[in-house]
């Protein structure tokens, strides 16, 4: 049998990596994770995401997002059961927010964004279309992802390709070597453990921190997806909303609180989130203010932030074992998912070509 692969993590990054590796056909893939689709632990960030495709990086760092857009657009067009649908988005910015180089989502609000070339209906907003207090903006049709549908769909696609899943909490990355469903040692481990990479033995990446995101999901529908560059409620608070596909409700946000591990929704923050949405889009509540908001649930997810950005690289664990890291995606796990997974596959191919143990296994096919 050829070399087994073990993927650590069943978030969007781990599942997408496993899916692309499973398409290679000759390598048995096992996903090992503490959390699986359907779980709701805040440290399992993927279920809590918006999620959407609104590019966040500058042009010279955009390749992963460009590649991912091609696949998300295809899925929205051809695979409705994946839980992705097209939705028009309005991005609105305040000039004062662009002066802060540390502001979150800075790339999305660039004055002349590179990504306008991706969308046929991209246009600038007129002054009359802007919410009070905002100076400029743009509009285009992108996609919104219902994570409660998409994550199980990804898992199902993996299973269809022969991927096996095991639930386990690993204390050290070395343990993954013996977790393959084949019973043979895994020679290649994909580390997509997200925020878990901070505490995982053999990795313990202290550059990892949680970026707490609090949201509210409501029944109310909206005329368009919206995202705003800043708020008057402080630098850790945000304003955005998007309607999820297939009856997923409308998700409202939010916060971006770096270093905050608190998993419990704060009722005061929730009230501010709702009030900001009513202020910029009163029609969402049928003109009734906060009383018109029909709440489904409150949520908190801990984004896997990493100082220095995402880590996608290979590392030799021992003489016959390699790790390929794919973690630290912060707020853009979904919108870079396929581009990052393609890099994982590329590194996998490099390792496979260079390792004599793999050449031997191939010769036995």
UniProtKB/TrEMBL annotation:
Coiled-coil stretches: none
Similarity field: Belongs to the DAMOX/DASOX family.
Domain FAD dependent oxidoreductase span(s) in chain numbering: 5-346
UniProt xrefs under InterPro entries: DAO (IPR023209), FAD-dep_OxRdtase (IPR006076)
Cofactor(s) needed for function: FAD
GO MF term (any one): FAD binding
GO CC field: cytoplasm
Protein name in the entry: FAD dependent oxidoreductase domain-containing protein
UniProt-listed GO biological process terms: D-amino acid catabolic process
Keywords from the named record: FAD, Flavoprotein, Oxidoreductase
């Amino acid at each position: 049998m050829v070399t087994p692969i073990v993927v650590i993590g069943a978030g969007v990054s781990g599942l997408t990596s496993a899916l692309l590796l499973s398409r290679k056909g000759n390598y048995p893939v096992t996903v090992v994770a503490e959390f699986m689709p359907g779980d709701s632990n805040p440290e399992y960030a993927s279920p809590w995401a918006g999620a959407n495709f609104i590019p966040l990086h500058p042009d010279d760092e955009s390749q992963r997002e460009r590649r991912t857009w091609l696949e998300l657009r295809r899925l929205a067009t051809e695979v409705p059961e994946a839980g992705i649908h097209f939705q028009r988005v309005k991005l609105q910015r305040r000039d004062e927010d662009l002066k802060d180089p540390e502001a979150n989502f800075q790339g999305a609000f660039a004055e002349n964004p590179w990504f306008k070339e991706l969308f046929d209906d991209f246009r600038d907003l007129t002054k009359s279309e802007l919410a009070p207090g905002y100076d400029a903006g743009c509009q285009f049709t992108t996609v919104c992802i219902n994570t409660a549908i998409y994550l199980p769909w990804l898992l199902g696609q993996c299973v269809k390709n022969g991927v096996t899943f095991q639930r386990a909490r690993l204390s050290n990355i070395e343990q993954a070597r013996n977790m393959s469903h084949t019973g043979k040692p895994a020679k290649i481990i994909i580390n997509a453990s997200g925020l878990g990479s901070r505490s995982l033995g053999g990795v313990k990446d202290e550059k990892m921190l949680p970026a707490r995101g609090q949201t509210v999901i409501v029944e109310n529908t909206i005329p368009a997806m919206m995202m705003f560059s800043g708020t008057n409620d402080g630098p850790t608070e945000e304003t955005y909303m998007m309607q999820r596909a297939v009856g997923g409700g409308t998700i409202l946000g939010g916060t971006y609180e770096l270093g905050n591990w608190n998993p419990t929704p704060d009722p005061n923050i929730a009230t501010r989130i709702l009030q900001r949405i009513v202020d910029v889009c009163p029609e969402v509540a049928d003109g009734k203010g906060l009383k018109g908001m029909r709440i489904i649930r409150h949520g908190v997810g801990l984004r896997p932030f990493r100082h220095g950005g995402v880590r996608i690289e290979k590392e030799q664990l021992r003489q016959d074992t390699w790790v390929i890291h794919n973690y630290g995606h912060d707020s853009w796990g979904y919108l870079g998912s396929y581009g990052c997974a393609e890099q994982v596959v590329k590194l996998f191919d490099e390792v496979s070509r260079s390792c004599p143990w793999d050449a031997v296994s191939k010769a036995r096919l």
